[in-house]
């Protein structure tokens, strides 16, 4: 495995120090707020991953509209992070604002279904093919409950995932391959069990290993994104999905495609765009415009088997639930988001913009002679620090470079552009404009001038 094409620490340290000093000078209100917030919040933030921003303290949000974010110091940013997909609809689109306002006034949560839920189920079937849907509070929950149901339906104990996958805080997925052997993923917080007992792991695109592991016939379900997006974007090689489908069918294993991020590929994610044939589909984040909602859907025959299972308590305390799941508010938001915002026309706009982003970045890289690669997945695009795109999670992890990422993110932030903390990814919304993309290209050009000088 080769490492990233990156500056030395000696070259990077003063650049990072300069950007950090600039951030602190220009964001006195966010800095002061962080000190106050540490008195009441763990780490000074409402959720600990917010500490991952490249800035010394996170920006404090005053408001976000369309594709722009404004912080409490009064700075405005082009938002290419979009809440790491949660705001892929853009911030506050009128149809969702109206739907939520109306629904909240008429009851947000009552333990009762609304007509909107069945509408959303039908729409998700139209987009993703699978027939029977359930709603959850998050995509994580959707994955968790889908895994439970897959185990209940097949009577098999294990799950198979690809090394360095991420599917939310799903215990069974915190596994990587180290020197070819399964290992608990570094940093796992207070694991409830040894993940190697519940999970088989192979590298993405490694069909031989996949076949070997599935032939044990103890795997209930393969859980995967259609392309990995959480360890950089790793695309499937030609034929990978056909073989994955064939091997699952042959070994009696269910196939769960998690489209939470790859909803960027088109209105029906990669499942529709690439003609995939999953047994179970998970979506989340953007489907209700940022109102917490996840969903999982399965083939009708699996739903029938689940309903017929007298031992599995899906109605009470059987481990599948969430009081606020599928409530009136989230279903009204999802109906508006899917029906009126994340439309075919919207995708034409956002995919073209991601193309503009990728072209702009490629152009800058070529001009500065820096041989990094750029990958586009529909409305999302990303640059990473190697010439060739990695073919699996392990190779992709090896080209990560935290310091370099931090510099690029902080440099962009100081010039009015937000990129997702966990990635070098940019995502487009219906509200994003060419000017937002070009603002990034200009900042990236400036940063690359500095990086290229250090590479010599
Ligand atoms: N699946 C995928 C592919 C994800 O990327 C994520 C989060 N990044 C999740 C599931 C979990 O989403 P959430 O944190 O909203 O539950």
Automatic annotation (TrEMBL):
Protein name: Aspartate aminotransferase family protein
SUPFAM superfamilies, per database record: PLP-dependent transferases
Classification via NCBIfam families: PRK07046.1
Keyword Transferase attached: yes
Family: Belongs to the class-III pyridoxal-phosphate-dependent aminotransferase family.
Organism: Svornostia abyssi
The entry's keywords: Aminotransferase, Pyridoxal phosphate, Transferase
Names of required cofactors: pyridoxal 5'-phosphate
MF GO annotations: transaminase activity
Any single Pfam family the record assigns to this protein: Aminotran_3
Superkingdom as given in the UniProt entry: Bacteria
